[in-house]
Write a sequence for this structure.
């Protein structure tokens, strides 16, 4: 069954969320006839050397020279016992191809932060950015492939016991000038009725699910984008459910969101894009919508007419378009179509379906739309990238 929401269901969602959203702030359900966009897929688009293979293609991006970058879950994975879990590294690789699809090079061979690929993006200066979900890192490379900046920190992969000195003899005082034994940390509780925290204070309230913490602490981030001033926006989308803003130097500015269904609440914010005005578009996959935020991360609108969006892309140029994909999940062939939209949420047209052949898609994970008539898509389950040449929309479909 298609995941396009009806007006009735949309109304129920809004009422259940307990938030008032005006008609001007939402777009969905009213556009019953959607034009079909004819398109072709370039055959044998990427030419890989012998003995080099793609795995799940989670990230695709192009630069100003039309070179294509592919971030893929492939390689030799190594497992290490971490402080609290088994830790893997070396399971993702970043490849560059020229404008004709010929292999150019691999970037970041053996780098510390390539663990579980999620997306790759290229900014207006041709810097290459990757988001690695398992490393909890956003990594910025210059056009030559040298690391310029990291945001976040990869979990430590070593397991060292905390050193604790032996306990003093019974009845002995502690460190010179310190409290006698029995009066320091771990002493008996205070009077009855005292709070459970330190010094008799009440214990802190539990954190809001998915809100995260200020700074550079991610929990399985998903995407990255920038505005004209170079500010960096990150969707922190699996363990957390939020959007974070940094300045051009990677200094934390603000964050918004937590797990939920209302405005500025998210359920797996899986993709992110920024338009020329600095508005931020979030693929709120688990809530079956795109949320639009302004540059200060205030809620502007939501689009409920494109199913369950896995990724978003805003094309450059004077007339910008928004692309998204109602991707099929890996265990089925439901949906799979992609959409070209105006920035206000109106659908220009749709194209494609789930499947394994050319012009079909296997869980599209990222779209590059630097050329809005020649987009590149990365697929999870088909282990490939396709270049799609879009034509003018034809008659509407129901």
């Amino acid at each position: 069954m298609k995941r396009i929401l009806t007006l009735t269901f949309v109304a129920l969602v809004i009422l259940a969320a307990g938030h008032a959203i005006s008609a001007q702030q939402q777009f969905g359900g009213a556009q019953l006839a959607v034009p079909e966009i004819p398109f072709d897929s370039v055959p044998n688009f990427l030419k890989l050397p012998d003995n080099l293979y793609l795995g799940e293609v989670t990230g695709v991006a192009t630069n100003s020279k039309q070179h294509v970058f592919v971030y893929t879950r492939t390689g030799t994975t190594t497992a290490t016992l971490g402080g609290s879990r088994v830790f893997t590294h070396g399971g993702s690789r970043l490849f560059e191809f020229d404008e004709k699809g010929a292999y150019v090079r691999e970037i970041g061979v053996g780098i510390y932060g390539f663990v579980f690929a999620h997306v790759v993006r290229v900014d207006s200066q041709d810097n290459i950015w990757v988001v690695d979900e398992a490393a909890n890192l956003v990594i910025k490379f210059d056009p030559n492939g040298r690391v310029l900046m990291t945001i976040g920190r990869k979990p430590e992969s070593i397991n060292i016991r905390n050193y604790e000195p032996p306990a003093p003899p019974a009845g002995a005082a502690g460190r010179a000038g310190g409290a006698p034994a029995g009066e320091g940390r771990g002493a008996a509780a205070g009077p009855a009725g005292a709070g459970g925290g330190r010094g008799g204070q009440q214990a802190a309230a539990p954190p809001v699910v998915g809100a995260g913490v200020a700074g550079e602490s991610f929990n399985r981030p998903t995407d990255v984008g920038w505005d004209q001033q170079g500010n960096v926006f990150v969707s922190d989308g699996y363990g957390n459910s939020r959007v974070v803003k940094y300045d051009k130097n990677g200094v934390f500015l603000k964050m918004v969101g937590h797990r939920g269904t209302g405005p500025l609440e998210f359920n797996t914010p899986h993709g992110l894009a920024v338009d020329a005005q600095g508005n931020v578009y979030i693929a709120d996959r688990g809530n079956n919508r795109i949320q639009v935020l302004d540059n200060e991360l205030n809620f502007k609108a939501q689009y409920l007419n494109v199913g369950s969006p896995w990724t978003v892309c805003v094309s450059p140029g004077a007339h910008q378009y928004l692309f998204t994909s109602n991707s099929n999940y890996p265990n089925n062939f439901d949906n799979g179509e992609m959409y070209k939209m105006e920035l206000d949420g109106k659908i220009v047209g749709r194209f494609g379906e789930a499947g394994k052949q050319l012009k079909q898609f296997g869980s599209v994970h990222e779209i590059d739309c630097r050329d809005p008539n020649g987009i590149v898509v990365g697929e999870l389950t088909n282990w490939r990238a396709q270049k799609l040449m879009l034509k003018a929309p034809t008659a509407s479909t129901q």
